[in-house]
Design goal:
heterodimer, A: mainly alpha, B: alpha+beta, five-stranded antiparallel sheet
Chain lengths: 363, 501
């Protein structure tokens, strides 16, 4: 097996937490708030529920195939050819997600804080450091997340605290303006976006206490979603749904509101730095997942070189969308269905077939 | 003794019976070296046999030789029947360590380490008598780790004194010293010290293996050993600690670490060494926890300032002027008016000048050192600003950075390299570059290990018990666990209820 390391429950928690939280600070709030408006919290709860279902499916699968990643047990369940096809689909999905995440961060940096620097410079530096992290192993990634996770929580709490004075609770009304069907439809994007933590099916194989996986994973997701929901609600209460929907980066606009005394102002770039550190972890997780997937499908002994090859693939794929609006419209219209098919349907299929075939490698 | 020892390598055979023959052979072995003393005398017993005492001038205590070897043998033994002369001599020498041997190799090792060898005509057995005693520096307050509160004694250059200093701190039968000697030419004595039952046996074995693998001709300081046994020789971060003070060493051994004494240097190595140890100070534990915790926080801050401040200044000045408050921005712009160099060139040049001044200050004799500091402060500081070569903000930044760099002394050399690295990062990509640099360094540190222990422990991998002594120093009754991973035997003591009146 190419990966030798083990991660602890705490590291598992923070990996999932960073993956959920740090990715959802850029475009997701704008899209979701403009769709669901003040009912955003219901949408987030439905998305959370979708994700919990996926988590339970993958946890059950992980228990049935201890110490195996999703790439390995799809082959056990579906046989060599069909299983490899499934594994490749999952790996490609991670590859695709990684390139979307990378491009999102690149777009964000060039449109907000550093407009004069060419985007490719950010992307390449990101890929170089991420490749280095991956070649250092999952353990190191876990340790990094253990450090960045708490900092991320602190940074978000800091912004929310300093902006408390401009909250207007009336802006959170009305509630239940949308029909349940509409709300469900709007929750597909956040649901599929959070569903990216099907990478838990990879981490579970390297978890030192696989029995605690579900606890750690649900903890990470719930903590991430709850913090996000509170942040979104406060953003709406501060800016109003109208401003939020018109902003490209609503949360960034929200952090720009900080003015305390004459001293603490214009600190949004510091905040952004913490987000990017979190974003780095979520990108590195996806980069890692793709790399490991390809290495396991090809049955390689180590993934040292694959990481760089995958990095170059991600770099090219991230230029798939010509501009931000193309990417946003894909996120709204195509992404949820594609992602949920892979995250929900394919994983349930795996579980179902493994149950029918009575495949259970646990003694 | 290790296989590298020079005396084991050569096999010189057994002693001859004739004292003359032995003397000639020894002279040849020592290449007629001038500091070897051969002293002939006759024993005061009936047959008056001739005896020869061999020792090295300066390595022995002459009083011991006169009073407890020559005096009894020449005048006092006076034994009638010399049936077993060697036993008679052994029983009449008032000396604490005596060892008969018939091997030349053993005899020579003894003589070289300060023993005296006694050879008697007609016997092929020599006697090694402990007469070690040489001029040595006394126990003094060390220069590097000075304290306001705490013991002031420091290790010396002689290993016997050093082990005694440690033994006086830890009066415990489990404190164990393991000896070996290294260096094919110097044959330097090395002691590994650890507490049995507290130190992790696996790490002890690992240290022993690494020490035995060293293949080197000379060990002149413990730094030689450090560079041979560290996990990552290419790392700029130290993965082996050193200390000059017995109380600090005792503290580390009591947490399960291992000390490596090297004869001839007051610096004792401690392994495994983690990053947090650089921020811990013996005085943190001797003074009450509140102020100690604040000071510890300041140390982390100083560390961050010393590696990041120039880089942040460059990033703010070059890329993100909007983050600087307006009034400060105006005064900064005014001070930079007419400066010919961009900020990163200024930072690098001023940093280099500071390093030159520091190096000069350390090496120069004290009276000249003052002249250097005047030149540094007045000419390079004030005059350079007045002449418009550097901005005065830059002087402040370089000065603050430099002083902060001394706060965390064990990391001082890593800090100056990291500073340059971060200036390059921020000079190219602003704060984003700095952030990616930080992540890079963090990944590097997370990967680094010291004798199998993750270097960033107990921060990541996180350990709540260990975190009690990282960023703040909990009161001593709470610090009742030894660091997990380093030792298997974790409990220092069981918490007892606080004694109140």
């Amino acid at each position: 097996m190419p990966e030798q390391g083990k991660i602890s429950s705490r590291q598992f928690f923070f990996l999932i937490f960073c993956l959920i939280l740090a990715n959802s600070l850029y475009n997701l709030p704008t899209i979701s708030i403009s769709a669901a408006e003040t009912d955003i919290w219901i949408v987030m709860l439905i998305a959370l529920a979708i994700d919990i279902v996926v988590a339970v499916i993958l946890y059950t699968l992980g228990l049935r195939f201890p110490n195996q990643t999703i790439f390995e047990y799809s082959k056990v369940i579906l046989g060599k050819y069909l299983g490899s096809l499934f594994a490749i689909i999952f790996a490609l999905f991670f590859l695709f997600m990684a390139s979307i995440v990378l491009r999102t961060i690149g777009d964000f940096l060039t449109t907000t804080v550093m407009p004069e620097t060419p985007m490719v410079a950010f992307l390449i530096i990101f890929l170089l450091v991420s490749g280095y992290a991956i070649n250092s192993g999952l353990e190191v990634l876990g340790r990094l997340s253990e450090f960045v996770g708490p900092v991320l929580i602190g940074a978000i709490a800091f912004v929310m605290l300093l902006n408390l004075k401009s909250v207007d609770l009336n802006k959170l009304l009305p509630v239940f303006e949308h029909t349940p069907m509409q709300l469900f439809k709007h929750s597909l994007l956040p649901g599929s976006w959070f569903g990216v933590c099907i990478v838990m099916s990879i981490f579970m194989a390297f978890h030192n206490k696989p029995k605690e996986t579900l606890k750690a994973k649900l903890g990470g997701v719930v903590a991430g979603v709850v913090i996000l929901t509170l942040l979104f609600l406060q953003t709406i209460a501060t800016l109003g749904t109208g401003v939020c929907s018109r902003q490209m980066y609503a949360i960034y606009r929200f952090t720009q509101m900080i003015h305390v005394g004459e001293i603490i102002e214009r600190i949004e770039y510091l905040e952004v730095l913490v987000w990017i550190a979190g974003g780095f972890i979520s990108f590195a997780i996806l980069h890692y997942a793709t790399t490991l997937g390809i290495a396991q499908v090809l049955k390689l002994k180590s993934y040292q070189y694959i990481a760089w090859v995958v990095g170059i693939m991600i770099l090219f794929l991230s230029y798939l969308f010509n501009n931000i609006s193309e990417r946003l419209s894909f996120l709204q219209d195509g992404f949820p269905y594609l992602a949920l098919t892979i995250e929900g349907f394919l994983t349930s299929l795996l579980l179902l077939i493994s149950m029918i075939r009575h495949l259970n490698l646990k003694q | 003794m290790s296989k590298n020892s020079p005396h084991h390598a050569s096999n010189l055979g057994l002693l001859a019976t004739s004292v003359q023959a032995n003397r000639e052979l020894l002279k040849k072995i020592f290449n007629n070296s001038a500091d070897i003393v051969f002293r002939y005398f006759t024993l005061s017993i009936s047959s008056y046999p001739q005896a020869l005492l061999i020792f090295i001038e300066g390595l022995v205590n002459t009083e011991t030789i006169n009073k407890s070897i020559l005096d009894p043998l020449m005048f006092k033994i006076n034994n009638k029947t010399a049936t077993n002369l060697i036993d008679v001599i052994k029983s009449s020498l008032p000396n604490n360590k005596i060892k008969p041997t018939n091997l030349f190799d053993e005899l020579i090792t003894g003589i070289l380490s300060g023993d005296s060898a006694l050879i008697i005509d007609g016997f092929s057995t020599g006697i090694l008598i402990d007469t070690k005693g040489w001029e040595a520096r006394g126990v003094q307050e060390p220069q590097t780790e000075s304290v306001v509160r705490g013991p002031r004694e420091g290790f010396t250059e002689s290993i016997g004194v050093n082990t005694a200093l440690l033994r006086r701190k830890i009066k415990n039968k489990n404190l164990c010293f393991e000896a070996l000697s290294l260096g094919t030419q110097t044959d330097t004595t090395i002691y590994m010290a650890y507490l049995i039952g507290i130190a992790n046996e696996k790490i002890v074995q690992e240290v022993k293996n690494r020490l035995q693998r060293i293949n080197i001709d000379s060990i002149l300081e413990s730094g030689y050993i450090e560079q041979y046994i560290e996990d990552e020789p290419a790392s700029i971060f130290p993965t082996i600690g050193n200390t000059e003070k017995p109380d600090i060493l005792a503290g580390k051994l009591l947490e399960g670490r291992i000390g490596i004494f090297v004869d001839g240097t007051p610096f004792v190595l401690t392994v495994p060494y983690l990053l947090v140890e650089a921020f811990q100070n013996s005085e943190d534990y001797y003074s009450r926890p509140f102020y100690a915790s604040v000071i510890r926080g300041l140390r982390y801050l100083a560390f961050l300032i010393s590696i990041l401040l120039p880089s942040v200044y460059v990033a703010l000045g070059n890329f993100h002027q909007e983050m600087i408050p307006t009034s400060l921005l105006i005064s900064m712009a005014a001070s930079r008016e007419g400066i010919p160099f961009p900020p990163y060139v200024e930072v690098v040049v001023m940093g280099m000048i500071f390093e030159i001044l520091r190096e000069a200050g350390v090496r120069l004799p004290r009276p000249v050192g003052q002249a250097v500091s005047i030149v540094g402060a007045l000419v390079l500081g004030q005059a350079a600003v007045d002449a418009g070569i550097v901005s005065d903000i830059m002087v402040i930044i370089v000065a603050l950075t430099a002083i902060a760099g001394f706060v965390v002394a064990p990391l001082a050399d890593a800090v100056s390299l990291l500073r340059l690295f971060f200036i390059v990062c921020s000079g190219t990509l602003g704060l984003f570059g700095t952030l990616m640099g930080i992540i890079f360094v963090y990944i590097y540190l997370a990967k680094l290990r010291s004798f199998g222990i993750p270097y960033l422990f107990p921060v990541s991998p996180g350990n709540l018990e260990g975190l009690k002594d990282v960023f703040i120093r909990f009161p001593l009754p709470f610090l009742n666990k030894r660091p997990i991973l380093i030792t298997k035997n974790q409990t220092k003591f069981f918490k007892n209820r606080r004694l109140r009146k």
